[in-house]
Amino acid sequence: MDETLDVIIAGGGMVGAAVAAALGQAGLSVALVEGGDPPAAVADDAPFDLRVSSLNLASRQLLEAVGAWDFISAARRCPFRHIEASDEEERHHIHFSAAELGVDNFGHFVENRVIRRALWQRLAELPTVTTLCRTGPVAWVPGGHRSLLELDSGRMLAARLVVGADGAGSRIRELAGIETRDQDYHQRALIVNVETRLPQQDVSWQRFTPAGPQAMLPLPGHHASLVWYDSPEATLAREALDDDALRQAIEAAFPSRLGGIEGITGRGSFPIRRRHAERYVRQRLALVGDAAHVIHPLAGQGLNLGLQDAEALSRRVIAAFQAGDDPGGRQPLAGYARERRPQTLAMIAAMETFHHVFTGAAPLRHAGGAGLSVAERLAGAKRQVMRHALGL
Q: Could you tell me if residue 383 is left (phi over 0), alpha (psi between -120 and 50 degrees) or otherwise beta?
């Protein structure tokens, strides 16, 4: 290229697109490299996709700040105002209400494809952002003043910073020689979209069982996304059931508050694994989102963590750019790593604790259940947990 870009972002998913939008609206020149096609439009009356994420208040504020939130139709997002969790017998439980913090909701459940589409619509409005689709990186060469990125199309890009936002199997991370620490939980999560007899709920609830959690994520109207963790064998067997048999299995296993299922509208499953990069930055390179960390999804914080990465990295890069400093230099990247890595490690530790307590031996599970009841009575602790749920 005749001119060096400020930033190249590999991966046009939600986190990569959020970084591109933040940098682009600040005036940095950005190339967003995406291996697939641009996201398609989603009609308001289209069936709900299986891939749904929880957007907390901080994530919504980021989407608002980069100009993408208004592209998400109200018909495709569902606010949740309450969070409930209980042990298997539901003798011990804890309940959180957004009203206790003086806010309208904890966040929204939105399909991943809708979030991504909204971000790409915003990118189309930014003149300094270029999107390159159906191509990906094959070589990365760091340098003192810029990095070179070769694409499988044969095109060579140069930038002061390369951002790896290309998911758990990140090619950028591989090219940079960054190792990961991995763990297989020997669980599989079954995702089932259902039509419910009850109208739209505003509570996200989860029940901890020895085999893994069961969760209900409300969706707009008479719809919900159910998540059922179990062994890979049990999960695959349930996934193979016909609709009526699966409906009966859900109604027998899930709490009665689900209110009954009118129909199954979609199903799928995925293995539960953890992956954490041993470092988030190298010379003129940074990792964000799943390229940096994949955590146990039982708290639904994966995307929120990734968007926090996007906010922290773009904030530091923009500050350097506006000060006339090097946006891909050592100082902004080191600051990003110092900020994000400890927070992610803390979240990983919390998820590990929940997993081992509620899937462990009976005495450990009983202690975990009792802990929920104790926490329910500790107002200060509850407020701190609620602020964390908001991303504050």
A: alpha
DSSP H or E run through 137: strand 137-141
Half-sphere exposure of 368 (CA within 13 A, CB side): 24
Q: What is the pLDDT of residues 49-87, one digit of tens each?
A: 999 999 999 999 999 999 999 999 999 999 999 989 888
Angle at 58 between CA 324 and CA 195, to 5 degrees: 140
Listed in sequence order, the residues at least 6 apart from 195 whose beta carbon sits closer than 8 Å to its beta carbon are 222, 223, 261, 262, 263, 265
Q: How far is CA 322 from CA 26, 125, 315, 327, in A?
A: 9, 21, 11, 9
How long a stretch of residues is the chain? 392
The mean pLDDT value for 286-302 works out to 92
pLDDT value at residue 381:
59
Give the CA dihedral 333, 338, 341, 343, nearest 10 degrees: -130
**Scanning the structure block, which residue is given the tokens 């191509």?**
135
CA 329 vs CA 127, 238, 284, 321, 333: distances in Å: 24, 51, 6, 10, 7
